[in-house]
Amino acid sequence: MRKSLLCLVCVHLCLSVACKRETRQFTAPPATNESYSVTMSEIHPGTTAPPPLQNAAGEQAYDVNTGKQLFMQYNCVGCHFNGGGGIGPPLMDAQWIYGSNPENIYSTIVEGRPNGMPSFRAKIPDSQVWQLVAYVRSLSGQLRKDVAPTRSDDMNAHRSEQRTKRETPKQSTPGEIH
Amino acid sequence: MRSLVLKVGSKEISLCNLGVLCVSLVGFAKKSFTTETQRTPRLHREERADDLCGKALMKQSGSTNRIRLVLVAFGAALFLCSCSREGIQNSINPAGPNAANLDRLWWLMFWVCTAVYVLTMIAIFIAIRNGTRRRDLNPVLDPSPETERRKRNAVVSAVVVTTAILFFFLIYSYSTGRALTADLAHKNGLSIEVTGHQWWWEVRYNDVDASNMFTTANEIHIPVGVPVLFTLRGGDVIHSFWVPNLAGKKDLIPGKISTMWLQADKPGVYRGQCAEYCGLQHARMAFWIVAEPQDQFNAWRQNAVQAAVPPSTDSQRYGQQVFLSAPCVMCHAISGTPAGSNFGPNLTHIGSRNTIAAATLSNTREHLTRWIVDSQQFKPGNKMPANNLGQKELDALVDYLQSLK
Known about the structure:
Largest sheet of chain A: 2 strands, parallel
Helix content of chain A: 25-40%
Number of helices of chain B: 10
Radius of gyration of chain A: 19 Å
Shape of chain A: elongated
Oligomer: heterodimer
Order of helices and strands of chain B: EEHHHHHEEEEEEEEEEHHHEEHH
Radius of gyration of chain B: 31 Å
Distance between the termini of chain A: 61 Å
Helix content of chain B: 40-55%
Number of strands of chain B: 14
Number of strands of chain A: 2
Largest interface: A-B, 19 and 23 residues
Strand order of the largest sheet of chain B: 5-4-3-7-10
């Protein structure tokens, strides 16, 4: 009896030590590329091949939460709505025009895309673009399962974004009928 | 109780600190005295000292007691002196009718409670004194009906007096509370809407004429002698609006609109503070209320309602370009320019404000520059990201921001 109790305590200790605690960075990581540079044109054709970029922020709960706030505040909701799409394409389905990798989404935000997506180059700091990327990916369940769910400021009819069904990204073209 | 504040350089060292220091010194002294006096009698007992020696010993311990008492009294006196009645963030330095009401209630409660405390202590002291002197316990265990009646009367009257005092306090504080919110509808003064954000205050001056409405942040100007109606909203989490010199606290709750009014009778600057824990930088979420004569206030308002002054030098013009193409434009608004986001504080007249970052830093060139480059070093966790601007861009940007008077 005592032995099994001891065993149980040991297992619990091991489990609690094994929990990886997310660390929150207060100082933004030094910019990898020149953040302030003149944008030559508002839109870029873009490619699906991931550009050589380093994801500065991990896809942690804090990043997803902040990304969710920024998604509202930077008015992404104005076109993409809450992921369902409207003026812009939906972000919570399996269809990706310019790729679903974090690097693809990063360059979509930074470079802009034809037919309406503006370029946010130099307007949004790198660290925040990566936070937006993390949130956008959470909309279709692309994140690791252990990322804690986001908390909404309002009551939400649906489940937290990270708890949505994981979609398998598919290549798509704009205006394609599914 | 006038304040005794020592000015050492630019820092004000309140005698409060000295008082605390003295009390701890007294505690220390008390400890060393008691160990000394405890040690000595044991020594004497071992030597079987005669009565004379014992008497001398008692005399000595009596004098240390007196020293201890004097020290305690000195420390307590200093401590009381530290209750300053000056300062720009002090609820016992009322500058308006609301705070004066609260101040009156507070001092009445303070003095009544002090009197009750002193009387109770005297009664306990007398009881202990009489009890230890008494040799014959019979009158205590078997009191005469006369004593019994006298004691019963004493207890009953004490209970009656206590109840009466408590009821008096209840009614008085209720009526004070009523006075704080009374006549809200009839006060035909200024109307200001304050929204609490993590961790700054959005301030909007309402008016029947929409062209007279404007938004600012963290610095509220009000005219002296005019009741000001505050409409309080919670932007993200619960905050609390508190200007101790002018009024009590009122919470800003998300999804709820609460109102309060306050009035400043003396011109001056009063510091307000968030009074409900709202996150990491709760302590650095302050604001200023600047109460000024009506004509000065009108001049200020006339300026505040205008669009931002256009840049006049080359550096300022470049600074405006930087502002509009750098991340600043995503969150801040400057009226008269395309910058119109209302997520961060409105910067239309940032150059005329006394502080930045919710009364955390004085509005100097150096502070502004360092804040733009890396605001997280001052307020870790705030929502403004670090900005990777070149020296030339940064200088121009600060030039431009400082020109926005």
